[in-house]
Structure formats: C-alpha cells, structure tokens
Amino acid sequence: MIQFQLNGKQVSANVRPGTTLLDFLRDKGYFSVKYGSDKGETGADTILVDGNMMNASLMLIHTVSGKNIETVESFAHGQDVHPLQDSFIEEGAIQCGYCTPGMVLAIESLAREKDNPNESDVKDVLAGVYCRCTGYVKPVKAAMNYLATGEPK
Amino acid sequence: MWYSIKTVEKPSTLKEAVVSLKNIDTTLFSGGSYLVADKNPNIQSLIDINDLVGDGVIASIDGVHIDAGATLQTFLDIVYSINPECRLLKGIKLSCPSKQIRNQRTFGGEIGKGRPNSEVMLFLHAVNADLTVFTDTERSVSIRDWDGSGIVTKISYFPKRISGIELERFSLLESAPAIVIVSGVKRKNQFEFSVGGTTNKIQSFTCLIEDWSAEISKEFAGNAVKEFSADHLGSLDYKENLIATAVNRVGDAL
User: Fold this and answer.
1) Domain-embedded: residue B80
2) ipTM for the whole complex
3) Residue B134 reports pLDDT greater than 70
4) How many domains does chain B have?
5) Which residue on chain B is closest to A27 by alpha carbon?
6) From the CA of A99, how many Å to the nearest CA of chain B?
7) Selected residue of B92, B100, B101, B174 to mutate for chain A interface (largest A Cβ count, 10 A)
C-alpha cells in the first residue's frame, strides 16, 4: 500500500508494482495529466512532486510514497481560476490545450523556486513541454506577466 | 504501465542489493527515467536503491563529489552558484534539455546506462572521474576502466588535476542528440580525448602535447570511426571527417 498527498489530500494506492503515476492519476480521473509518450519528451504528463516538476509517465507509483503530488486540478475551483491560468487566458496562450496544464505547472514551480525569474528561466522550464499549436511566444509572455505580479499561488 | 514488473525489492544494504542483482530478470532502480521509458519486458524485479545511496553534491576547487543518487538538476543548482563557468553544467543541459527529466535522472543512472551520446558521460570521461563502486566491498575505479559491474555509489573528479577542458559536438539541431561529441582535457604534458555520439561506446585517446598535429587527429578519427555505423545521419566517411574536425577544434582550443 502506497500513501502520499495528492492535491492536498492523503491518498492510498494498492496497485501493481509496475504502475506508473500517470496510469494511476488518469485512472482516478485526473485528466489534466496527459499521455504524450513513454519517454517523457513531451512534458504533457508534467506534475509537481514536492514542488519539483517531473514526468508522471517516468515515475513508478512506489517511488512517490510519502511525497506531495500536485496536478493542475488543484489550481482552479470552478470558474475561479489561478492567476497564472488567468494570465494564459488573457494572453490567448492556449490553443488545443493539451500541453497547457504542463506549462502552468512548470511556470508555477519556477515561481515558487526562484525570486525574480527572467525570460531565460521561463524558457528553460518550458523546454520540457512540447507545444505544437501556439508555440511559445504567448505562453512565455503569459508567464512573464504572471511572474511580474509576484503573486504565485 | 510496465507490465512485466512483478516485484520491487528494497534491500536494506548494498550487499543485499548485489546479491539480488545476480538474478537475470532483475535490475537496479534509482531515478528510473531510462528504465521506465524503456520498459524492458525481460525485467521482472526492480531493486530500488534510492534509500541506499546519497543524493548530495559537494563542489569545491579541490574536488567535486557527487552521490550516485544526486539528480542532474541538483548538480546544476549547487554548482551553478559556485562556478557558473563549469563546462559540465552546459553539458548537462545539452544532454537533457527537459527540467522534468533533470529532476528525475540521477548520475548513477546516467553512468549505469552508459549512453555514448550523453554529454555528461563525455565530460566524466574527459576528466576521468573516479567511481566508488560497491561489489563485495567498496573500491575506487576510473570511469574509463569501469567494466560495468557493481553499484556506483559516488562519482568524484578533481578540477585541479586538469588545466583545460573543451567539448565539441555536431548535431542536426542544438537540442538533438549529437552525431559526434568529442571532449578533451589538458593534463600535465598530454591531451586526452574522448569520442562519443551515435556510436557503440565511448573511446579515449591520449597524445603528448609536443606530438599534437592535424595528422594525429586524423589518426584518432580513423580509429574512433570503427565503432560508428553508417546510417541516416551520414556515411562513415562523413562521420570520420566530423570526428577529425571536432578533435582538431578541441585540441586547438586546449
């Protein structure tokens, strides 16, 4: 039995040893965490583990015991969205939306980790999240607008 | 889902881990970024050594000591604040542009995988890092001489022992895996080169500084290309020329 925090709630998982965290999360209805590939190149499966961005598809469930996992589901409450999500909407930084949760989590992890991050820092964290619709200009701008307010979650 | 996995063992000592490792359907598990990506169907049991190896990095002018469980990102975070000019930092970013993967990939896993197109490996070969390896007991072995047996617990290198380090790589895009990577160091009276890329293994060559010439780099390239294959990235002649050019540039820069 594996126990960990998921979006602030204590969770117990009794699953097969080879289960990835991605499989578990999607099975439990956390559909913001997407399948992109089995090798982590796309970043569509980005989650936060103790505040650090990681690929859920590359994590076996037994390795998250005692850790704090966050998905983007914890960021919005109905229509009440997180300021970073608001910044994405304002900037029009979303098209198909497949990569957007990964981008939001990547930028949020940067906001928590570093004081006054610059554009180069934003590009570094977004390098692991592939977008094939809007590209990166608008997401970077949305991130910079959000980071300038100094109000991470 | 990695369907073939039936058990995850968490040995309490490295000795227990070594014993378990003798089973053919078993492998060591640390960060998991390579293993989980590959999902080798022949592996049925994982030996999780995360709790048995450290995850810290100690860096000073005298020496850099990296626990096998340290992630690539931990190394970047710690060493950047001390030495932003450290060439291994750039190598790590070239090897692994994704921060998610850098947060998961450990040095032990990188060495265990032994990927010849890893800039991290080429740097560690260039500086001839010392590995602390546990088999029945703990021993120290140079990365160039390590035969792959045992469990790597620590990696150390000593910047003071070298007076210059350079790396040259050729790839289709900067973020793409390199076709050819050549790293080199100047140590006492000789140059030491390591050649990797889309090849079977990393190879090392040395030459006395006084003997260094364009002819020597051609000779190195002629030997090194034997471990390369002709493929969609280019013919063997093309790759031999890339290696010679890279060795030349590294040698000249040193």
Assistant:
1) yes
2) 0.93
3) yes
4) 3
5) B1
6) 14
7) B100
